[in-house]
Write the structure tokens for this entry.
Amino acid sequence: MTVLRIDNVGIIVEDLPATIAFFRELGLELEGQTQVEGEWADRVVGLEGMVVDIAMMRTPDGQSRLELSQFDRPAAIAVEPKNAPVNALGIRRIMFAVDDIDDVVARLKKRGAELVGEIAQYEDIYRLCYMRGPEGILVALAEKLK
């Protein structure tokens, strides 16, 4: 076997505290924060003189993590359009399994998130939706029906 698991998903942001608050509202736990810099980090990511603030967020089951990064140096590069549609090339969204989609949507809306479409039901299996949060981040929510 080559791959053991996905260790984490990384997201580059401009407002680290707001993004942490958004994912906390979703139910993730802040595992830790630090600043990363130095020659070893420069070699890993291929950026000279890098300084980045990182927050690791963990799902409640402890199995999945998000690495939120805010670059102090060099400055982050904006990708246009900022709020790209779901059919744009590249990684577009992260999906989370939730136990009450209506509650999660209501809580995230209080943090400024917006529904991209609407909450829809797929057969008698799932209720699903996409939401856009801070930094234009797309999250998909899926509630398995009982």
Q: What stands out?
A: Residues 128 and 142 are 5 Å apart (CA to CA). The chain has a mean pLDDT of 91. The first helix runs from residue 16 to 26.
